[in-house]
Specification:
The complex is a heterodimer of chains A (181) and B (192).
Chain A (H helix, E strand, L loop, with lengths): L3 H14 L8 H11 L5 H13 L4 H39 L8 H19 L1 H8 L8 H11 L5 H18 L6
Chain B lengths: L1 H15 L8 H11 L5 H13 L4 H16 L4 H33 L3 H25 L2 H4 L6 H19 L4 H17 L2
Helix pairs in contact in B: 1-4, 1-5, 3-4, 4-5, 8-9
The chains are: A mainly alpha (181), B mainly alpha (192).
C-alpha cells in the first residue's frame, strides 16, 4: 500500500524542482513514480498523462489528481495535489511580498541559462522509453509521428490530438475488431 | 465581495482553459488585467517572466499572485491577501480536478472493456508524439540562444547533449542533472 505521505513527498519534489511547468514535470514524475517507487507501470503512466492532458486546467495538478486517485483514491489525490502546489505557492507569495526583483538578478539569470537546455534534454530523453511502453512499431509509428508534427509544425492544440486519437481508437475497435473485447 | 469575485473568475478560467500552461495566459490576462483590473499590464508581464523562472505551473503561479494583489488592492491587510491567493489557486484547479477524478475513476473501473482498451492504446501512441512535440517546440533561441559560435549557444548545446546522453544511457536522475546544469550555467556565464 502506497503511503499518502510518500505520495505527498514525491509530488513535492516534482513541484519544487521543475521550472517551466507542464511537460517539464514529466521526466521527474516518471523517474519518481515509475522508476524510483514503481507505483505505476509505464503504460499506466502514459494513460495518466493522456487523461491529464485532455482535461481543462493545470496539467501538473491534473496529473497529481489522477495518479493520487489511482493509488489511494480521494485522500491520495488530495495529498499529491497539495505536495505539487505547496512550494510554487510559497515561492510566489515570497516573491509578491519580499523579493520583487528576483527575476532581474544577474546570477539568477545565469543559472537559468544553464537550466533551459537541461530541461529540453530531460523532456526529449524519455520519449524513447515511452515509445517502447506504448508499443510503437513500424505499423503504428505514424500515430506518434503525426501527433508530433500536428502540434510542432502546424500548431494544433494538443487537446484536439488527444480527442482525435481517442476517436480513432474507438472507430478502429468498432470497424476492424467488430466491437469485440 | 472581492473574495467571491476572485473565486468565480478563477473557477471559470480553470474550467475553460484547455491545453494548460501558456494557452491559459491570454484568458487570465483578459480577466485579471482587462476586466477586473487586479493587476497592471506590466505587473502581469513581470509575473510571466518570473513564472518561467520559478518552479510550478504558470496557472497556479498567476492565480496565487493575482489573488494576493487583488485582495491587497481592495484595502485588506496582508494576511487576508494570503487567504485570497490560496482561494484563487483552489478555484483554478477545482473544476478540472473534479473532471479528472470523475473520468479517471470511470476509466479505472472500465479499463478492461474492449472499446476503452482500444482508446487507451491509441492515446498512449499519441501522447508519445505530444511529448516529442513539446521537446521540439522548446528547441529555439529561448532555450539555446542565437545559433553561432557564441558562448551561450555552444554551452547550451553542450549542456543539452550531456544531459540527454546521461539520462538515456546512464539513467541519471533528473534532480542531479537539473542541479548540475544550474551550477554549470552560473560558472560558464560568470567567466570573464
Amino acid at each position: 500500500m502506497v503511503r499518502k505521505s510518500d505520495l505527498f513527498w514525491s509530488f513535492f519534489k516534482v513541484g519544487t524542482f521543475t521550472i517551466g511547468g507542464g511537460y517539464a514535470m514529466i521526466p521527474l514524475m516518471q523517474s519518481e513514480l515509475v522508476e524510483r517507487h514503481g507505483w505505476l507501470g509505464e503504460e499506466e503512466f502514459l494513460d495518466d498523462v493522456a487523461l491529464a492532458q485532455s482535461m481543462p486546467g493545470v496539467f501538473a495538478v491534473n496529473m497529481a489528481a489522477m495518479t493520487g486517485y489511482r493509488l489511494r483514491r480521494l485522500g491520495g489525490a488530495a495529498a499529491a495535489i497539495a505536495g505539487n502546489v505547496l512550494m510554487p505557492i510559497v515561492f510566489i507569495l515570497l516573491l509578491a511580498t519580499v523579493f520583487r526583483a528576483f527575476g532581474d538578478n544577474v546570477y539568477v539569470q545565469r543559472v537559468f541559462m544553464g537550466l533551459r537546455p537541461c530541461v529540453v534534454a530531460l523532456i526529449a530523453a524519455p520519449v524513447f522509453n515511452m515509445a517502447r511502453s506504448a508499443k510503437v512499431a513500424w505499423s503504428n509509428a505514424w500515430i506518434p509521428a503525426a501527433s508530433a508534427a500536428a502540434v510542432w509544425l502546424l500548431g494544433v492544440n494538443p487537446v484536439l490530438v488527444v480527442l482525435a486519437a481517442a476517436a480513432g481508437g474507438w472507430l478502429w475497435w468498432r470497424v476492424a475488431k467488430g466491437g469485440r473485447p | 465581495m472581492i473574495f467571491a469575485q476572485l473565486f468565480w473568475s478563477f473557477l471559470v478560467i480553470g474550467a475553460f482553459c484547455f491545453g494548460g500552461g501558456y494557452s491559459m495566459v491570454a484568458m487570465i490576462q483578459a480577466e485579471v488585467v482587462g476586466r477586473r483590473g487586479w493587476m497592471t499590464a506590466s505587473e502581469f508581464t513581470d509575473l510571466l517572466a518570473v513564472s518561467q523562472m520559478t518552479p510550478g505551473p504558470v496557472g497556479i503561479n498567476t492565480a496565487t499572485y493575482a489573488g494576493y494583489s487583488a485582495v491587497l488592492g481592495a484595502g485588506y491587510p496582508q494576511w487576508a491577501a494570503v487567504c485570497g491567493s490560496l482561494l484563487a489557486s483552489l478555484a483554478v484547479v477545482a473544476v478540472p480536478v473534479a473532471l479528472v477524478l470523475g473520468v479517471g475513476g470511470w476509466l479505472l473501473t472500465n479499463k478492461k472493456r474492449g472499446g476503452v482498451a482500444a482508446v487507451m492504446r491509441a492515446l498512449r501512441l499519441a501522447v508519445v508524439g505530444l511529448v516529442a512535440a513539446a521537446a521540439l517546440g522548446l528547441m529555439g533561441s529561448e532555450s539555446f540562444g542565437v545559433p553561432g559560435a557564441n558562448r551561450r549557444f555552444v554551452s547550451s548545446v553542450a549542456i543539452f547533449a550531456v544531459v540527454f546522453l546521461l539520462s538515456v544511457w546512464r539513467k541519471a536522475g533528473p534532480l542531479l542533472l537539473i542541479a548540475a546544469s544550474g551550477v554549470a550555467g552560473l560558472v560558464v556565464f560568470s567567466l570573464p
